[in-house]
Write a structure and sequence with these properties.
The chain has 235 residues and is mostly beta strands. The protein has one domain (27-234). The chain contains one helix and 13 strands.
């Protein structure tokens, strides 16, 4: 399985004047639009409707024909914040925020998918636009009389993606944290009982990054420390 790590396509350069500077921004706004791609196996029964710009991105899977226990396909809807041109996400430094909302229905069908890619494209206001990808494994469990044991599970099986960007001399990182149903506890997985629908948010966080000293200044500082040490030993 290939893990994808795609960074935002536009990153402003960071010009350093000398010593590291503290971040001057406390938050950012932006939008996100979701789409699905690369469901596997390719022979599975599925359908994709990437209509997040005017509704939701939707993928459904599972063949319900010729199976009296197969009630309805499984379905995953994702709605990126601001994808319909209204509102968007607000990221306060160091605090989790919602990038997209998810609705996951555990249906009953055969010939299911076991993996898919969730793509998020969007814009960080005043910075630029681009996208990132999450690989998601789909565990379609055998159905039993126990709804908990029959729960199906979505799990992010790729490294959680992140993107670095700069505004003037300040560096920041937007990181995907995972799924959460309460905004506090983050998880790479989202489960739904048999026949039920689970809702969650896909959360991210923006943190300020330390600005490294230019290489020449760093070497100069190391040289000065060496000279001071030599003088002290000779004194």
């Amino acid at each position: 399985m290939k893990h994808r790590h795609i960074l935002y396509g536009l990153v402003f350069p960071c010009f350093l004047a000398g010593a590291a500077q503290a971040a001057t921004f406390t938050g950012f706004t932006g939008t996100a639009t979701a789409s699905f791609a690369n469901p596997t196996p390719t022979t599975a029964s599925y359908s994709i409707s990437n209509q997040d710009s005017g509704g939701v991105a939707r993928i459904s899977w599972g063949d319900t024909s010729g199976c009296w226990l197969c009630t309805s396909p499984s379905q995953l809807d994702v709605n990126g914040l601001g994808s319909d041109g209204v509102g968007g996400w607000l990221g306060i430094l160091g605090q989790p925020f919602v990038l997209a909302t998810l609705s996951y229905k555990n249906g009953a069908g055969s010939n299911n998918i076991d993996h898919l890619d969730l793509n998020l494209t969007g814009n960080i206001t005043g910075v630029g636009s681009g996208g990132l990808t999450l690989g998601i494994a789909v565990n379609n469990t055998p159905n039993t009389l126990d709804p908990n044991a029959s729960a199906d599970v979505l799990t992010i099986d790729s490294p959680l993606p992140w993107v670095d960007f700069s505004v003037g001399p300040d560096n920041y990182r937007l990181s995907v944290l995972g799924f959460s149903q309460d905004g506090v506890n983050m998880s790479p997985s989202l489960s739904a009982w048999e026949g039920a629908t689970a809702s969650a948010g896909l959360y991210g966080s923006i943190t300020a990054m330390a600005v490294p000293l230019p290489g020449s200044l760093g070497l100069m500082g190391a040289g000065l420390l060496g000279l001071l040490g030599a003088r002290r030993r000779s004194a």
